[in-house]
Write a structure and sequence with these properties.
β1 and β2 form a beta hairpin. This protein is of the alpha+beta class. It is about 20% helix and about 35% strand. The chain contains 4 helices and 8 strands. It has an 8-stranded antiparallel β-sheet. The protein is globular and about 45 Å long.
């Protein structure tokens, strides 16, 4: 649980959890953030994706406490929207780091503590938008995410502004 679980506790939980390939759990230590990365076992539920090499399952800690937990899913953005409703905030950006013609659609829920990201490619088609799987991140209550969650969600305007 971000904001509660320590780095060492999270590592032990991951190494012992049947959904996680225990041999894949890796800890990287640095002065600013400590990272945990892992791969899923064949016992992980079907909605968890292990195919997103750009965003492997990971968690990071500051001051020895997990702050953010991120996993790639196979859950389409359309299903998230139906389940959680209109996002509280979000934005669209062009991302050259994820793919050469990648567009990231980032949405926020629960005051910015739950983030959904779906990465799209040009040409942008509506059916791809709704069906593209999301990456889920959960942040600790005191983890900073800037003021990005305050950006009003305006999909219609963004859809027209994206230059593909």
């Amino acid at each position: 649980q971000p904001g509660v679980t320590t780095f060492d506790q999270a590592r032990l939980i991951l190494e012992r959890h049947p959904w996680v390939d225990a041999d894949s759990v890796r800890a990287d230590y640095s002065d600013l953030r400590d990272h945990l990365r892992w791969a899923w076992s064949d016992q992980a539920p079907g909605f968890i994706s292990d195919l997103d090499a750009m965003r492997p399952a990971n968690a990071y800690a500051t001051q020895s406490t997990i702050q953010v937990l991120s996993i790639a899913t196979d859950i389409p953005f359309g299903a998230v929207l139906l389940l959680l409703g209109q996002p509280e905030g979000g934005f669209v950006t062009v991302s050259s780091t994820r793919s050469p013609d990648g567009i990231e659609h980032i949405t926020y829920y629960q005051g910015g503590h739950v983030t959904m990201i779906n990465t799209l490619s040009c040409p942008l088609r509506r059916r791809d938008f709704w069906g593209t799987p999301v990456n889920l991140s959960v942040r600790a209550a005191d983890a900073t995410n800037g003021n990005l969650h305050l950006l009003r969600y305006d999909l219609r305007r963004w859809w027209q502004a994206v230059g593909c």
